Amino acid sequence: xxxxxxxxxxxxxxxxxxxxxxxxxxxxxxxxxxxxxxxxxxxxxxxxxxxxxxxxxxxxxxxxxxxxxxxxxxxxxxxxxxxxxxxxxxxxxxxxxxxxxxxxxxxxxxxxxxxxxxxxxxxxxxxxxxxxxxxxxxxxxxxxxxxxxxxxxxxxxxxxxxxxxxxxxxxxxxxxxxxxxxxxxxxxxxxxxxxxxxxxxxxxxxxxxxxxxxxxxxxxxxxxxxxxxxxxxxxxxxxxxxxxxxxxxxxxxxxxxxxxxxxxxxxxxxxxxxx
Length: 275
Prior knowledge:
With 275 residues, the chain is an alpha+beta fold.
């Protein structure tokens, strides 16, 4: 079946070694309260705070701080997504009540449909957030409404805070402002050295043309959306008359990243493959 590949450009990947190989929250999808489907893979490259929100809780005023930090740091690759739940004294509310309360607090970050965080069946996102066996980092307990989980730019579990920690606590602000786990590119533009020639969309291959003669080293690698190396497309010297091609026929549907490095310059290109 024909594959459609959509192209986006992101900063370079910098993979951090951990005792366990962490999986990514980007593997999940959910529904927003308006019924639209959302893939969490869209948060690649951004810090993400996940909050189990409620409309009629003593902690509901934390919506104010949540919106404040969203307004302040959204432009700096910071995102929030709220998951309403009725697991704690039915304080989440109905869909219409949730929308009304969010409007009262002028909430502009995404709010999902009502989910189960503790009761059966637990939503897959919260199953992942709570179990080290799934997220590869740590267990956590959803103790009440407005718990907060911090997720890094690669979708990896970073930290959990209970409802007692305010959204604008200094420890959270420090994390938002901390360096990205995805490195920024040096000043030289990699486009001056190598050109991505693939049509967009493409159903056959990812193609590159070397534009600079005498490159001492060119490294091109293909990664999955969770940061696992799939293949080294090319590693070695290159010259201005060289073309490089990688077949995508065997790739299944999903998000992939091609990381290109040469002469101290790095760039990552994101592909979404849809069968």
